[in-house]
């Protein structure tokens, strides 16, 4: 399986600011996704990061709030913009080598907004 | 739309006892099914997956799961639980639309192991 590195592992941020989370994979992958795990909750898919084009967002998530970049097949970023305490969550990057193969997850970024 | 139900929020078992975690899914075709485990402060680790073929799948750490189409279930089992198995377990389903690895997760089952 791919080795996935997420940075930062955790952060405490002031409301109204933005945080960019990085996801680096040690091999080229076809699929990259971003998930959110709110406190005590399950994981919810935010978007699919598409290489060289705009991300595909799930219902309830918008590009202005969660801009995503994917400049190549091994790297993606998720920005949480204009943060509020409700954005306090764990954000996880997920990758898969093919369209219909298993997905692997990074360790996550624990974000606290104060 | 696909969905996953994990009816048990919390389960407590004694070390050495057998374990079964329930998972039911809703999906219009044959789904891709997964079980992941999340230890405190950690990311998700894939335990096992079902794509097709043999409905009884073996995973890591001695876990297995059985796909039952008639019951829309994919229950996770382990014959003898170890204290280190205490964690949260998530069942997930992936569909052909958007890829088998674009996942919908259940709400999770928190497993506690009593020594």
Largest sheet of chain B: 6 strands, mixed
Number of helices of chain B: 0
> What share of residues of chain B is helical?
under 10%
Q: What overall geometry of chain A do the principal axes of the alpha carbons give?
A: globular
Q: What's the quaternary structure here? A: heterodimer
The N- to C-terminal Cα distance of chain A equals 36 Å
What does this structure look like?
The complex is a heterodimer of chains A (114) and B (115). Chain A is built from no helices and 11 strands. By secondary structure, chain A is mainly beta. Chain B contains no helices and 12 strands. The A-B interface holds A 1, 4, 6, 31, 33, 41-45, 48, 92, 94, 96, 99-108, 110 and B 32, 34, 36, 41-46, 49, 51, 90, 92, 94, 96, 98-108.
Which tags fit this structure?
heterodimer, A: 114 residues, mainly beta, seven-stranded mixed beta sheet, 0% helix, globular, B: 115 residues, six-stranded mixed beta sheet, four-stranded antiparallel beta sheet
């Amino acid at each position: 399986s791919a080795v996935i590195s997420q940075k930062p592992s955790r952060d405490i941020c002031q409301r109204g600011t933005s945080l960019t989370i990085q996801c680096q994979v040690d091999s080229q992958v076809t699929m990259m996704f971003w998930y959110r795990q709110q406190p005590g909750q399950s994981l919810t898919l935010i978007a699919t990061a598409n290489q060289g084009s705009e991300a595909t967002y799930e219902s309830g998530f918008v590009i202005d709030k969660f801009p995503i970049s994917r400049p190549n097949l091994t790297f993606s970023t998720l920005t949480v913009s204009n943060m509020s305490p409700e954005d306090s969550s764990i954000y996880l990057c997920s990758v898969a080598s093919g369209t219909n193969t298993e997905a692997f997850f990074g360790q996550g970024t624990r974000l606290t907004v104060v | 739309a696909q969905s996953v139900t994990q009816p048990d929020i919390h389960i407590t078992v004694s070390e050495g006892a057998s374990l079964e975690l329930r998972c039911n899914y809703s999906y219009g075709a044959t789904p891709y099914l997964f079980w992941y485990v999340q230890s405190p402060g950690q990311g998700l680790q894939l335990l096992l997956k079902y794509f097709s073929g043999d409905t009884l799948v073996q995973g890591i750490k001695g876990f297995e799961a059985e796909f039952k189409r008639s019951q829309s279930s994919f229950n996770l089992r382990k014959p003898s639980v170890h204290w280190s198995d205490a964690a949260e377990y998530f069942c997930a389903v992936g569909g052909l639309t958007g890829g088998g690895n674009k996942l919908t997760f259940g709400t999770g089952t928190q497993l506690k192991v009593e020594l």
